[in-house]
Amino acid sequence: MPTEVCEALDKYQPEYVVVWGKRLWDKMPGERWQDGEPIVVDGCSTATGAYLLNNGRRVKTMAVNHPSVGYSWDYWYRVLEKFFLH
């Protein structure tokens, strides 16, 4: 899977990737990965990072809780707002 993810990122070159669920986040490939600054909202920290594309661009990436495990739309709105604006 790691190669396929990086190939898709290189092909489509998104600015952002939001990963739905911690299990999927834990399975994301480590190749071309750079840790980012965590986003802190209400004292809770959310990990972020970026994948480096072949052309040198970075794809900002973060994970959100999967809605099936309980989801506070207010909270995640504030996290995503910080993610997209910084």
TrEMBL record:
Origin superkingdom: Bacteria
Record protein name field: Uracil-DNA glycosylase-like domain-containing protein
Taxonomy of the source species: Bacteria, Pseudomonadati, Bacteroidota, Bacteroidia, Bacteroidales
